[in-house]
Amino acid sequence: MSNITPEHLARRAVVYVHQSTADQVINNRESERR
Fold it and tell me: What does the alpha-carbon distance between residue 8 and residue 16 come to, in Å, rounded to a whole number?
């Protein structure tokens, strides 16, 4: 596990944030249609 660098963690965090915000946008559009 020592080969996991802070850069890896940072990259994962960025991807996670992007995915969660994309889900929120999709959910908001769905609720707007209703």
Answer: 12
